[in-house]
Amino acid sequence: MATAARVLEFDFPPISSAESSKSALRGKIAHMDPVLVLVDVAADPSLKSFAKNERVTILSIRTAQREASVAYPASDDLREVGREYVALLHGESPAEATRGAVVAG
Amino acid sequence: MTAGSVTIGIGPVACAWRQPLALLVAFALAAVTAFTVVRLRTASTARPAAPEFVLAAIEAVAPAAILCGAFFVVYGIVDLFVWALSYTSLGWNSDHEARRVASLFALALVPTFTYITLESVRKKLYPPVAGVPSRYHAYVARDPGRLAVGAAFALLVPAGAIAYLLVAGVSSLWAVAGLAAYTAFASVAASPPGEREEPGHASGEVVGRLERAFAAAGYAVVRQPRTGEPEIDPLLVDVDLLAQKEDRCVVVEIKRGGADAPRLA
After folding, report:
1. Is there a single domain that holds both residue A41 and residue A68?
2. pTM of the predicted model over 0.90
3. Chain B residues with beta carbon closer than 8 angstroms to that of A9
4. Deepest of B102, B181, B245, B248, by most Cβ within 10 A of its Cβ?
5. Domain span including residue A94
């Protein structure tokens, strides 16, 4: 994933989905960031070290607690994504979510 | 290749019907279906080698052999029906009529089974990732001897048995049923085992929810991104989502806790 991000940052061809040719991404890209989403699993020390060194953002989601956290490095945009994810667990919009919490790791 | 496999699979029906021409009809129906309906190669996948095609042919025999099962079901129904009518003065031969109707029914299903088989073969021979070899590649490289034995038992033996039954005029339903069962068993036994899902891989529900979360945060999202370029696509195999917002893009891989994974407190 980290290698894919580096390659795509250097060369960003039109990208479509393997499932459907309808959706496609194209255009100029200034930043390509790798994001690892961990659902109900903890990052071990080696993964944390790898994430710091490779600048991989980790978005951790705890389904039971309805919480999400962003780390290495924290990103406002991804906090918003975490909030939306938690809201979807509730089945409601983020503004209505009462328990959904996103914290910086 | 698939047309040949389908013909071997349905061969016992031709023996039961005592009609060698049924084999030609089955082959023609399968070939026409293959050429008109299914587009096989959709990405710049590594070109499969001949042994990989042989393995695909072995695996394609089993679905067609199921048609023999359909033959026996229809045979039983028609035989019973004609037997009931035998009390009238129509003078039909129940066995003869049942074989004919059941064979025609099985032949009518050939295009459908060919289509299903081709869809399965297409995904395995040509994965939707440019530059990635087929599912059969590693299996063939690991054990070529087993491939040769599998081809002999799953393709050559059934083909030889069909030819023998037709030439010798043997149309016993026991012989036909035995051959069909053997063909299906040999095909399944000689095929590579199914791939186990990678532990920790996210379910479609989780990926879909995250896709909607990115979209709600203003990103354009593509699930299972592919470029069609063999130099890049192998790097994207484990990438679940690619999300773009203005000139910023994120490559997303999702890992989910398995049964033995440490849970977040």
Report:
1. yes
2. no
3. 249
4. B102
5. 33-104
